[in-house]
Write a structure and sequence with these properties.
This protein is mainly α. The protein contains five helices and four strands. It is globular.
């Protein structure tokens, strides 16, 4: 998606929604959500907490952030604009998770301040916070990985958060990038020797 240099003080210009739509569709499919509404479908709650779906939803937030003019990585920008209830450390942690999953499909990242984490999935299934930071941050050394210094992520809550971000973004844009039903089929060409459905009614073979 091209940058559109939008900030909270400016009206949001038109943004092509094709990428958002594609990522949203696949993230919902991976997490057992209804294609139209984003709600968990009956009998598919177990799918709502998988890492592949988390990749899709983090990419969705990343795409939204690429359309916002503000300091920081796109994920942080999007969360700052459209999920203000999250604190800055939680936003940075989700950005670190995005990098770890997208680049290595891993759960360990060693970066700068606020971006060094080893992640574990929370078992709260949407009833807890999206991110729960450890009392003491992990120092980045593999031999010191402990449950006590893990950063816990509720994957279902992460999906809910991303759905909220894209709804708010689309609300400012004026059109929700929601996947719809089947594409309309292209019009069929008339068979040789038959008349066209409209317009020129002459036989295909010519004549006057």
């Amino acid at each position: 998606m091209a940058k559109v240099n939008w900030s909270a003080r400016q009206p949001l210009p038109a943004v092509p929604a094709c990428r958002l739509t594609a990522v949203l569709r696949e993230a919902r499919r991976a997490t057992g959500r209804d294609r139209e509404t984003g709600r968990i479908e009956p009998g598919k709650a177990a799918l709502s907490g998988n890492w592949l779906g988390a990749v899709g939803y983090l990419l969705l937030v990343d795409q939204v952030g690429s359309a916002c003019r503000a300091p920081g990585p796109p994920v942080v920008r999007a969360l700052r604009q459209f999920a203000p209830r999250l604190g800055e450390p939680e936003r940075e942690a989700l950005y670190a998770l995005r990098c770890s999953l997208v680049h290595d499909f891993g759960l360990v990242t060693v970066g700068g301040p606020g971006r060094t984490h080893h992640f574990m999935p929370a078992a709260t299934a949407g009833s807890g916070p999206v991110v729960r930071l450890p009392p003491e941050p992990w120092d980045g050394r593999a031999e010191h990985c402990r449950r006590l210094n893990a950063t816990w992520v509720d994957l279902r809550a992460l999906g809910d958060l991303a759905e909220e971000v894209v709804r708010r973004f689309a609300g400012r844009h004026g059109q929700a990038p929601v996947p719809r039903g089947r594409r309309s089929r292209p019009a069929r060409r008339p068979a040789p020797g038959t008349r066209a459905a409209s317009g020129d009614r002459k036989p295909v073979g010519g004549g006057t």
